[in-house]
Design brief:
Order of helices and strands: HEHHEEHHHHHHH
CATH architecture of the largest domain: Up-down Bundle
CATH topology of the largest domain: Four Helix Bundle (Hemerythrin (Met), subunit A)
Radius of gyration: 19 Å
Largest sheet: 3 strands, antiparallel
Number of strands: 3
CATH class of the largest domain: Mainly Alpha
Number of domains: 2
Structural class: mainly alpha
Shape: elongated
Length: 225
């Protein structure tokens, strides 16, 4: 039980840590589909009150990792490898197309914002507090890249795909941030050079590389459990 307990330093970012811990436990296969995630039990394991557990479960429900049912509480519904493949393959196709269509319409102000977002991301050193900030910067970087796309429907489809696990993968794949930095740098260079086709290609590779690393994480965790 002590292996799950949070330190005083951890409590500075309590909500993020609790959510991250529960997300990792689910994705590592420590629960079966249909298992209950009991608030009191996990509050005791993590050494916190029920409130951050309750808030974490609400977030995990949005991500599709749990389903909250009346009288039963949080039921584990972990994302499968097949789910990951579907989500990231669709993201690669749609986001690649969106950034290609977007690039001719990006203004200088948006390019400056992309530069600022990239610089802020590479300044982060990869600890847990920084990963939380990185997730926000990364999501905004992707959003700005596709903002100029004139296709209205594609935005809704992409946003629907982002409502699950994608925004939170940096918390699981923090050891792959250098790869992400390199890909973001290349994207930024193609934006400056006004090369929409090349931008689409690197965006597709970026998303599919993340897919492969996430599947590897899930498979490795499952084998170790």
């Amino acid at each position: 039980m002590d292996k799950f307990r949070l330190t005083e330093q951890d409590r500075a970012t309590l909500q993020y840590r609790v959510t991250t811990k529960l997300r990792e436990v689910i994705l590592k296969g420590e629960f079966k589909v249909g298992d209950r995630l009991i608030q009191e039990e996990w509050a005791d394991k993590l050494g916190v009150s029920r409130m951050p557990i309750r808030e974490a479960l609400r977030q995990l429900e949005v991500e599709g990792l749990v389903r909250i049912e009346p009288r039963r509480g949080a039921i584990v519904t972990p994302i499968s490898v097949e789910d990951i493949e579907e989500i990231y393959q669709l993201r690669a196709l749609l986001e690649g197309q969106a950034v290609e269509k977007s690039l001719p319409f990006l203004e200088e102000e948006e390019i400056k914002e992309l530069e600022n977002l990239y610089e802020r991301m590479i300044e982060l050193n990869g600890d847990e507090k920084d990963v939380e900030e990185y997730m926000q910067l990364n999501a905004r970087f992707h959003q700005v890249l596709r903002e100029g796309c004139p296709w209205r429907r594609i935005h809704g489809l992409i946003e629907a795909l982002w409502k699950g696990i994608p925004p939170y993968t940096p918390s699981l794949l923090s050891n792959h941030l250098q790869e992400a930095h390199q890909e973001h740098f290349i994207m930024l260079e193609y934006v400056k050079q006004k090369k929409p086709k090349e931008l689409r290609e690197v965006m597709e590779k970026h998303i599919l590389r993340t897919r492969d690393n996430l599947i590897q994480f899930i498979d490795k965790s499952g084998n170790q459990s």
